[in-house]
Every structure is written in structure tokens, then in C-alpha cells.
Design a protein that fits this description.
Layout: H1 4-7, E1 11-15, E2 24-28, E3 31-37, E4 43-47, E5 52-53, E6 55-58, E7 61-64, E8 85-88, E9 92-94, H2 98-106, H3 111-114, E10 131-135, E11 140-150, E12 161-171, E13 174-180, E14 188-199, E15 202-211, H4 218-236, E16 244-245, H5 258-270, E17 276-277
Parallel strand pairs: 16-17
Antiparallel strand pairs: 1-7, 2-3, 3-4, 4-5, 6-7, 8-15, 9-15, 10-11, 11-12, 12-13, 13-14, 14-15
């Protein structure tokens, strides 16, 4: 299986705030790497063979690549917007394909059943019609006009509301979610999932948020998001097959799976197949 298309992408490899000179030993797509701060306080990433790897510091994280990225790290304009609180949620290790982790983040239908009384609740289980497209100019998957009733849409929410979502996939192992901001209805809260592929069936997931919330304690914001993702982890680690099937005949989709279908089609188009299963077994 060729890996070159995904080798040349950017990946999160650590939280910049947690780096020191002793370094963080980790892995990227099966290769051991080390992430540390140099004498000038900048991040540096070293491959298993001792070579210096490309580095970017953005969205609270250190990013690197085993190859030669053809484009810069994708923009999140809200990361530069005054007044937002930026939340480094931490890392969760998940025994699943990095592509499975992103696909699960895109799934709306599981909210009432996995995140009961937080992101969803029975009998509010219907996924209303929404729009999905692959935006050719940006080369990204987008889902818009997504609406879902939620008992507690955010830590700052005081009661149940119908929440509007937009989902964006700018890179094979990253997704950006825009959702209704309870304190500022004219703005969007931004919740991201940055996934570091350790192996084809193992990944570190780094959630990050850019919110308008001046009241909630930072610890509570972090715990709220960690609670959500830990509920997802048990589901992800029990999915069969562990790799993400790209053949449309291998799993039966429903109307609620339009974003997943577009994501898989986009992955296949670009040969983003590290962590994917291409044919039925």
C-alpha cells in the first residue's frame, strides 16, 4: 500500500505548552520521532534516523511531517479572532484507525445514543436533511445546514437548544466543527479534532477548541470535552473492521451518513489510504 500521499501531510505531534528540552518520544505513521524545544524555545522534531523534520507551531500544537508537504497547514481564521478562549484539551490514545477517529467525529446520528442527555436524547433522534459537498477550490469536505436538538450543546449552555453545525475536513486526519455559540448567537464555537496516526490501527487524538465563553473555568471546559471523547473511544475501539472501509459496498450507509460517504470518496480520490481498508475481506 502506498503511503506517499499521507506522508506529505502535516500532523499534530504534541502540545507546545507541554514541551521541554527533554523531549517527547512518540511515533508518526510507524516511525519513531522525538519532539522537543531547542535552545531558542522553538519546537523541533527529529525522525528515527536522526533527520530534522519540518515543523509548524499552530493552534496550540506542534505539527510535523515525515515527507515534504506540498501546501501550508490549513487555516482556521477563528484562531486569530480576539476575545476567544483557546482550549488545549490534551490527548487521548485510541486503538482505532486515525481515519475512523475522524469519521466518527463527523457522525451526527450517534449523539442521542452515545452522548445521551448531553449532545442528544431520545426521542430527538432524527437527522434532518443537510448539505454535503467537496469544495474543489479549497479541496475540503464540508457539511452545512446540520441541525440537531441537544440537551447541553456546550458547557456554557443553560438548557436544551436546537444546535446548528458545520463540519469541515481540511486534511485526512483533521476535522473542524463549527457549532452554535450559546453566549453569542452571531458567532460559531470552533471544536477541532487533530489526529496523530501512530500506526494504521492506533492514534493519538488531540481535541482543541476556540470558544466565546468568559465564565466557565478552563478545567471544566477541558473535562466537558474529554467526557465527550471518552464516550466515543469505547465505540471506536470496538468497530469492525478496525481500518476504515473505502469500498462503498462494504458498509451500508443511511441518509445520516452523507458526510462519511463524501469523506471516504475524498480519501480515495487522493489516495489517502493509510488506515483504510480498500477491499472486503
Amino acid at each position: 500500500m502506498t503511503m506517499q500521499a499521507m506522508i506529505d501531510e502535516w500532523y499534530p505531534v504534541g502540545l507546545f505548552s507541554q514541551l521541554d528540552s527533554t523531549g517527547r518520544k512518540t511515533a508518526l505513521m510507524g516511525e519513531p520521532i522525538e519532539v522537543a524545544r531547542d535552545a531558542d524555545g522553538n519546537a523541533q522534531v527529529t525522525g528515527g534516523d536522526g533527520r530534522a523534520l519540518p515543523v509548524r507551531m499552530r493552534y496550540g500544537h506542534v505539527w510535523s511531517s515525515l515527507g515534504e508537504p506540498k501546501k501550508e497547514l490549513f487555516p482556521i481564521p477563528e484562531a486569530d479572532q480576539p476575545g476567544r478562549r483557546f482550549v488545549d484539551v490534551g490527548v487521548v490514545r485510541v486503538r482505532c484507525s486515525p481515519l475512523r477517529a475522524v469519521e466518527n467525529f463527523l457522525d451526527i446520528a450517534h449523539f442521542p445514543f452515545v452522548h445521551t442527555d448531553i449532545l442528544g436524547a431520545e426521542p430527538h433522534t432524527e437527522v434532518q436533511n443537510y448539505k454535503v459537498e467537496i469544495r474543489e477550490e479549497e479541496d475540503e469536505v464540508w457539511a452545512t445546514q446540520v441541525k440537531f436538538y441537544q440537551p447541553q450543546a456546550a458547557k456554557s449552555a443553560s438548557g436544551g437548544i436546537t444546535t446548528e453545525y458545520m463540519y469541515r475536513v481540511p486534511a485526512p486526519t483533521c476535522s473542524v466543527l463549527y457549532k452554535t455559540c450559546p453566549p453569542r448567537p452571531s458567532e460559531w464555537d470552533v471544536i477541532t479534532l487533530f489526529v496523530q496516526p501512530l500506526a494504521e490501527d492506533l492514534c493519538d487524538v488531540w481535541p482543541w477548541m476556540a470558544l466565546f465563553d468568559d465564565e466557565t473555568a478552563m478545567t471544566d471546559l477541558i473535562h466537558f470535552q474529554q467526557t465527550i471523547f471518552l464516550q466515543d473511544r469505547s465505540i471506536l475501539e470496538n468497530q469492525i473492521p478496525r481500518l476504515l472501509p473505502l469500498d462503498p459496498g462494504m458498509e451500508i450507509p443511511t441518509r445520516a451518513d452523507l458526510t462519511s460517504i463524501a469523506y471516504r470518496r475524498w480519501l480515495k480520490r487522493h489516495n489517502y489510504t493509510y488506515g483504510a481498508q480498500l477491499v472486503a475481506q
